[in-house]
User: Fold Small secreted protein from Streptomyces albus.
Amino acid sequence: MNKKLAAALCSGAALVLALTGCSDDSGKKDEWAKNVCDDLQPQLKKIDEANASIAEASRANKSPDEVKKADSAAFQKVSNAYRAMAKAVQKAGAPPVDNGDKLQKDAVKELNGIAGQYNDLKTAAEKLPTGDKFDEGLDSVAAKLKTLGQNGDKALRELQKGEVGQAMAKQESCKKSRVTQK
Assistant:
């Protein structure tokens, strides 16, 4: 059952991959993109680590209590990472493009919202029953996680469009592969 959580977390982490952009531009956009990409990379690593801990809990055939603990800790780690990403985008300032203030504001709001939703998943994981209904409860958490992964990337896609996305694509820290999908 926990494999569903791992798969859903992986798709949720793909939201952040929207920040990897496409090809060319210069100057202030490049500087802005470097600041953002450099600050995001450690957080993306934390999301990968959380994903790995959920996958490990499912492979290790752990008890319901151990799975709850692993999932709760992973969701907290992801929540913290998204909050840190929001702070990084906020700290970088508005991207130097038309409508940059709105792009920044929307991305920060979305990242903080995603952080809150992962915090809610942490709470849901902590409340899972450990008896006969454990698998059913775990399925419910996995469904919420899958929905989060599918619905939460509009502002991030907007941020990576056009000139900003082109500048981000040039940054080595935005090019690094994050999620190894099988």
User: Anything to note?
Assistant: The chain has one domain: 2-174. The chain is about 75% helix and 0% strand. The chain has a mean pLDDT of 79. The first helix runs from residue 2 to 17.
